[in-house]
Structures are given as structure tokens and as C-alpha cells.
Amino acid sequence: MPFGLVSSWSKRRGKKSKDHSDPWVYKPVEFWQLEDQTPHATKKHHGSSVFTLKEMEDATCSFSDEHMVGKGGFGRVYRGTLRSGEVVAIKKMELPPFKEAQGEREFRVEVDILSRLSHPNLVSLIGYCADGKHRFLVYEYLQNGNLQDHLNGIGEVKMDWPLRLKVAHGAARGLAFLHSSSAVGIPIVHRDFKSTNILLNANFDAKISDFGLAKLMPEGQETYLTARVLGTFGYFDPQYTSTGKLTLQSDVYAFGVVLLELLTGRRAVDLSQGPSDQNLVLQVRHIMNDWKKLRKVIDPELNRSSYTRESIATFANLASRCVRIESSERPSMIECVNELQMIRYTNSRALGMPLHTFKIVK
Ligand SMILES: Nc1ncnc2c1ncn2[C@@H]1O[C@H](COP(=O)(O)OP(=O)(O)O)[C@@H](O)[C@H]1O
Ligand SMILES: [Mg+2]
């Protein structure tokens, strides 16, 4: 049995039902093993807890509105306190019946993959609840919510340039870890990287969340042909959407879109704009290497004294390479990590910020 977690879940739920046609009831592992994802696991999961529905209700005062912190495609997210006193984020699956099978699949992928990953720039999964038809994911609670809210003025803290660089650098490190084989033995494509899936802790360290669409890349393969294109509008790699071929570079494209959001403060897709101006990449891609035009799209909220022209120009150049149409022309995530580290360093040095606050990270 390749996945320890799957195995324990199978044992727990195995006696409950023998019906293998309903996606909501127990299926032995071979029925829902992620296709073509023969894992070559090198790491064991580090102990996700299994919770009951009652524990989820107790933690959130029965999912009261005061505990709600957000809502996404899977359902609502609540802030909760476990019996141990630990404060957590609880994501409750609330899907219409026609989406339940897809939701169940995403739930299992999330538990399966995330419970085996440990990195300072990936959100930690504390546990899950699969009680009858109820499904919950329990994560570490990240006090500063998601990046998009901060860029769009909902968050209380205005993000200056060094803070944005820190977030970009942290998120790049998280993605680079996923893309390396050090995570589970083979590379993982996240497939839903976006600014609402970058969560921020009290210290504004970036942590990537939502692994329900993640895909383990079959060994030795650089592309994976998918029947359906999944992800979020505004972040879709044009090569993936036109050919169905998923690569690690699809995440690099989405990462480039987030860099553009950090630079301009605009949304990846802004439906309040006219049809030709809704897509951020299409709006700004062609001006990233032209300083006169570039300076006009820098987020007006950015404190002018927090950035140098050089750091903005180098950052914009990196963003423009990440969103290239041809996926082979995009940099790797490791290259992004190294370039962002250098940009952080030169920006803080030029502004006379104390260098001891800048830690070189490997
Ligand atoms: N671990 C967490 N800690 C704090 N807030 C969270 C956490 N997970 C999710 N949230 C909040 O709940 C919102 C909804 O999350 P989600 O269901 O993943 O949808 P989406 O990614 O589309 O925003 C997030 O945007 C974020 O603000
Ligand atoms: Mg999310």
C-alpha cells in the first residue's frame, strides 16, 4: 500500500459499505488511486488527525457566522479552536450534488498529498473529517488571510515593496519545493496557484494552500496530457489550455501572474473592466521591459521610498518571462527563487535597510 494515510483511512472506513459506485462511500484504494500516480514516496506523512463531525461543530460554535473567515469553490472556511486549544482553519465541503464526485476527489488528493508535505512555505494540514457525507479539511490557521485581500485593500496592512518581495520569494520557494523531487520523490504540479491560495501568517511568511488539483508528474515525464483543463481563470497557462498538456511550467505561468498582481496591485481578472482590459497579463505583458510605460502601472499604493527603479525593472522582467506563451521559454521555479533573492538583497541594500534583517535562505 503506497500511501500510509490511504491505508489507515481504508481500514477505518472499510467495514462501512461495499458499494463501489457511489463516490461518497468507502472504496478500496485501488478504486480511487490517482491515475498514473504510482508514488515513489520517500517521506511518510507526519500524522494527520482524524476528527469527528462533533469535534468540527464544537470547534466552530456549530459553524456560526462569527467564525467564518472566507468562502471558496469548495465551501466556507471557519476559524476554529480544537479541544487541545489549537486554533485552526476548518474548510467545510459544501457542493451541489453534481459536483460532489469532483469534490470528493479533490478532498482525497488534498489529504493524500498535503499530509505528506512539510515545508515552511506550504500550509500544514492538521487533519480531516470524513464523517458520513461530511467532509472537512483542518489546516494551521494563518492570521493574515490571503494575499489578494491585502493587495486589494481589504487587509489592514499596506504591503510595501520589501514585504511584497518577501511574499514573492516565499511563494517561489514553496513552488520550487513542490517541483523538486524532494517533496514526495517525484515532482508535483500545483495547478491552482493564485493570490487567494497564498496565505500569510502573522509574520507575513507566504504559505501555499489548496492542493486539491495537484498532480504528481509520472516519473520521467515532463508533460501530462489531461482530458479536462482545471484551474482558475486569469492564471491558465495558454499552452495547457490549448493542448491539455500540463507541465511544471504551467505553475510558473501562474506564478508570473501573481508577480504582476504584486507589482500592479491589480486583479488577475477584473470583470469591472471592458472585455479587452479584463485580463492582467494581456494588459501589461508587452510593457514590462519599457520603463516609461512600466512606471505607470506600478501599484499607486506602493510607498515610493520602499523600492528602487532597478528592483522594479528586474522584477518586471522576471514576471514577463514567467508569462511567456511558449512554456519552454519560462524560467524554472529555482531560477525564480534565486532571482527574487537577489532582488530582495539589492533593494534592501540600495535603500540602506539593515542587512541583518535579510537572511540568505537556501
Ligand atoms: N488556513 C487558513 N487560514 C486562514 N484563512 C484561510 C485559510 N484557508 C483559507 N482561508 C481563507 O478562506 C478563503 C477561502 O479559501 P478557499 O476555500 O481556499 O477559496 P479560494 O482559494 O478560492 O479563496 C481564503 O481566500 C482565505 O482568505
Ligand atoms: Mg484557497
Automatic annotation (TrEMBL):
The reaction(s) this protein catalyses: L-threonyl-[protein] + ATP = O-phospho-L-threonyl-[protein] + ADP + H(+); L-seryl-[protein] + ATP = O-phospho-L-seryl-[protein] + ADP + H(+)
EC number from the UniProt entry: 2.7.11.1
GO MF annotations, alphabetized: ATP binding; protein kinase activity; protein serine/threonine kinase activity
Enzyme class, UniProt record, top EC level: transferase
A Pfam match: Pkinase
Annotated spans, Disordered: 1-21
GO CC annotations on file: plasma membrane
SUPFAM superfamilies hit by this protein: Protein kinase-like (PK-like)
Keywords (A to Z) from UniProt: ATP-binding, Cell membrane, Kinase, Membrane, Nucleotide-binding, Phosphoprotein, Serine/threonine-protein kinase, Transferase
Domain Protein kinase: 63-343
Binding locations of ATP: 92
Compartments, record wording: Cell membrane
Keyword check for Iron-sulfur: no
Family membership: Belongs to the protein kinase superfamily.
UniProt protein name: non-specific serine/threonine protein kinase
Organism, scientific name: Manihot esculenta
